[in-house]
Amino acid sequence: MTRSGQEYTESLRDGREIWLDGERVKDVTTHPAFRNTAASIAGLYDLAHSSEHSATLTQGGVHRAFAIPRSYQDLVARREAYKVWAEASYGFLGRTPDYMAGGAAGFAAAPHLFTTDSFDGAANALAYHRRLAEGDLYPTFTITNPQIDRTKSASEQEEDDLVVRVVAERDGGIVVRGAKMIGTAAVFGNEVIVGTIEPLAPQDVEHALTFSVPIDTPGLKFISRTSYEGQARSVFDNPLSSRFDENDALLICEDVFVPWENVLTYRDVDASFGMWWKTPAYRNFVHQAATRFWTKLEFLTGIAILLTKANNTYQLPPVTQAIGRLMGKVAQAKAFVLAAEASYEEIDGGKGGVAPGKDISFAQRIMAGELYPQAVQEIKMLAGGGVIQLPASGADLLHPEIGPLVAKYIRSPGHPAEDRIKLLKLAWDALGSEFAGRHEQYERFYHGAPHIYLMQQVWEGDTASCEELARHCLDSYTLGQAVRP
Ligand SMILES: Cc1cc2nc3c(=O)[nH]c(=O)nc-3n(C[C@H](O)[C@H](O)[C@H](O)COP(=O)(O)OP(=O)(O)OC[C@H]3O[C@@H](n4cnc5c(N)ncnc54)[C@H](O)[C@@H]3O)c2cc1C
Question: Is the pLDDT of residue 485 over 70?
Answer without folding.
Answer: no
